[in-house]
Amino acid sequence: MTSTTHTRSARFDLRARDLTPGGVHSNVRLGGPRVCFDRGEGAWLYDIDGNDYVDYLLGQGPSLLGHAAPAVNAVVAREARRGSVFGSQHVLENEAGELFLDTVGWAERVRFGLTGTEADQAALRLARAATGRTKFVRFEGTYHGWLDNVLVTSVDGRIRPASAGQLAHHLDETYFLPYNDVAALEKAFANHDDIAAVIVEPVMCNSAAIQPRDGFLDEVRRLCDRHGSVLIFDEVITGFRVALGGAAEKYGVTPDLAVYGKAMAGGWPVSALAGSAALMDQLTAGVVHSGTFNSSVPACAAVIATLTELRQAPPYERIEAHGGTLMRKIGELGAAHGVPLRVQGLPVAFHASFGDPRTIHHHAELEAIDTAGYAKFVEVLVGHGIWVAPRGIWYVSAAHGERELNAVVDRLDSALAAETRV
Ligand code: PMP
User: Fold this and answer.
1) Is residue 285 part of a domain?
2) Within this chain, do residues 59 and 165 fall inside the same structural domain, yes or no?
3) Considering 77, 141, 163, 286, which has the largest number of Cβ atoms within 10 A of its Cβ?
4) Which of 143, 179, 316, 395 is catalytic?
5) 305 plus 350 within the same structural domain
6) Is the domain of 214 the same as that of 95?
7) Same domain for 154 and 213?
8) What's the pLDDT tens digit per position in 279-301?
9) Is the ipTM of this complex over 0.90?
10) Is 53 a catalytic residue?
């Protein structure tokens, strides 16, 4: 049962399906509710049928300052008058680079790109070049982009290529280990001397927002040092979100390379690869990374405006308070309606699901939750004006305040009442 109508969205979708496969421009959008949005403003989305939504998806994370943040968009609009890309340097690049490195804190060099996917590839390539080794370690349940060597799914607990047409042998480059399991990593290093890099999502936002156990990231750091492997933090979600300096700051562990995206540019498409000068300068010594649109004027303007805003008015305490209260309310409302809603993760990026309330520490334990049931419940949430991801992640932004909290609690209450009736 839904309380909103989507007649125009449905008509739009029909037309879209004739124009682009499945009507959407990313396979991630194929499943789940289909809504055509007119615009976003702050923590709200407005669709073409006149419905509004409190948004806890934030475009999969980028809109940390809320949609169409005036502090960012005004700067982008102004600077875009210069043009976009010139095939050389432009006047905003150094400011964006300096601000970025100063904000991240530990890195000495940065290269800007467009997507997390490509920046992850550059990181892996650099690590191989630097070590002369071929393989890398990653953890079950992480996501590092959609290319052949990193795209996986899990079938009956076994890791498989996720796409038809994917060259499965590219996955032979990888040792997959359970997250939060130091012994497994020690064993991998003991058995293999070809590990160029360990790549890790410091918080597994792509898998139930699983947090690192105390000391886990320190141990990963220690083992990489001992065995001469490059430690890559995939901070595409955590960067600028879990703290101004990302997970490296929050957990006090410094990687050799890190990849950023999403929240770094107020919703504009920018990614970054950052690291030590010794590693990064290999990009002038035979390791290739390129891109027509890298470090465009609008991209640099968006980075400058976003990071300036985050530094001048850090929203992290407010976000933490909002997210923390919301996590508690979700649990309480679920219990009041007899719906087994469980939440875990960080207030700024947490995971909600149906099922066993125990904390999930690694990917395999996800079997204890009812993924399909929750995805269906998300359709009910959308019908009640809450926009969230079917896979369970909830992102909180600087634009979520008291009004949004009241709205989401009210709407969640109605949605759960509808859920218990079916
Ligand atoms: N790494 C992580 C941790 C991600 O969550 C994502 C995207 N969700 C990517 C890489 C890929 O980024 P993009 O979608 O910008 O290619």
Assistant:
1) yes
2) no
3) 141
4) 143
5) no
6) yes
7) yes
8) 999 999 999 999 999 999 999 99
9) yes
10) no
User: What is the identity of the amino acid at 61?
Assistant: G
Buried b (16+ CB within 10 A) or exposed e, 205-233: bbbbbbbbeeebbebbbbbbeebebbbbb
Q: How far apart are CA 174 and CA 236, in angstroms?
A: 20
Distance from Cα 144 to the centre of ligand 1, integer Å: 6
If one counts every other C-beta atom within 10 angstroms of the C-beta of residue 200, the result is 28
CA of 270 to the centre of ligand 1 (A): 11
pLDDT greater than 90 at residue 420: no
Q: Ligand 1 in contact with 236 (CB < 6 A)?
A: yes
List the CATH number of the domain containing 388: 3.90.1150.10
Same domain, residue pair 51 and 190: no
Cα distances from 415 to residues 270, 330, 380, in angstroms, run 36, 12, 6
Asked if 282 and 355 sit in the same domain, the reply is: no
Q: State whether 57 and 137 are in the same domain.
A: no
Known catalytic membership, residue 234: yes
The pLDDT tens digits of the residues spanning 311-338 come to 999 999 999 999 999 999 999 999 999 9
Q: Give the residue numbers spanning the domain of 199.
A: 71-312
Does 258 have pLDDT greater than 80?
yes
Catalytic entry in 47, 55, 234, 256: 234
Q: Please work out whether the CB of residue 344 comes within 6 Å of at least one atom of ligand 1.
A: no
Pairing of strands 158-161, 152-155: antiparallel
pLDDT band at 58 (very low <50, low <70, confident <90, very high): very high
The rounded distance, in Å, linking the Cα atoms of 65 and 265 is: 9
Residue 268 Cβ contacting ligand 1 at under 6 Å: no
Q: Report the pLDDT value the prediction gives residue 3, as an integer from 0 to 100.
A: 60
One-character DSSP codes across 302-346: HHHHHHHHHHHS--HHHHHHHHHHHHHHHHHHHHHHT--EEEEEE
Choose one of 262, 293, 312: the last residue of a domain: 312
Same domain, 268 and 335: no
Tally of residues, the chain: 422
The pLDDT of residue 422 is 56
Whether 1 maps to a domain, the answer reads: no
Mean pLDDT over 214-237 rounds to 98
- Residue 125 included in any domain: yes
The pLDDT of residue 421: 63
Calculate ∠ Cα 295-64-126, nearest 5°: 40
Q: Give 148's DSSP letter.
A: T
Specify the number of domains making up the chain: 2
Question: What angle is formed at CA 207 by the lines to CA 203 and CA 213, rounded to 5 degrees?
Answer: 40
Question: Is 15 a member of any domain?
Answer: yes
Cα of 28 to ligand 1 centre, how many Å?
Answer: 11
Q: Does residue 262 have an active-site annotation?
A: yes
**Does pLDDT of 120 surpass 80?**
yes
- Over 50: is that where the pLDDT of 67 sits? yes
